[in-house]
Amino acid sequence: MGAFQGGLTYRQYFVRGELPADWRDRFAERLREHAFKPVEPASEEERALGWCSPHFPLDVDLHEGIYLHNEYLVLSVRIDTLKVPGPILKIYTEAECRRTMAEQKVDSLNRYQRAEIKDRVTQELRRKILPSIKTVDMVWSLHTGRVRFWSGNTKLNEEFQELFEQTFELGLGADTPYTAAAFGILGVPEDVVEKLADLQPTPFATAAAGFVDYVVGDPEGDL
Question: Which end of the chain is more exposed for a tag (fewer CB within 10 A), N or C?
């Protein structure tokens, strides 16, 4: 989902800090380190997240020809989930328990034996199934420092912020009127920024009127 097709829902951020002089070489190296790496079936991990091409999710060999578009750096975050569906795991675990009981000529297995069989069956099934793949686009305007990420999911946005900061070694902040003022992007005087921090919601109408709406305002009338 994202910049090239699909919906227009995104969250916007601003980058804290300046691009380093050697950003081209540095970013290329960092993207190689943080490019998507698939979930290992033999591990216990169910989810993996990393960068991929915005044009094709299986392309994780990233270079400038893929991610640089004039003044924009464009990438996708790829999220793979490798999880055996519960009903499938239950069926195959029960089948293996029955096979084991027949082989050992016993009428039942204790919980430890069943747990061991379940773990073994889980690993076998993980090697056979394919992970689900999801991608979300990111567009970074290197000129303005604005970043758009095409997802409204809170957890995924938190993971994106962490991945961005680990990769590019630059801070990423939510692009709101207050943060833009606080970090000097709008050129707002410091005393006004202090007042913005103390703003409280002001009732636009009373509950007695049958509805309540709110506008942001300064109850003392200083702004």
Answer: C
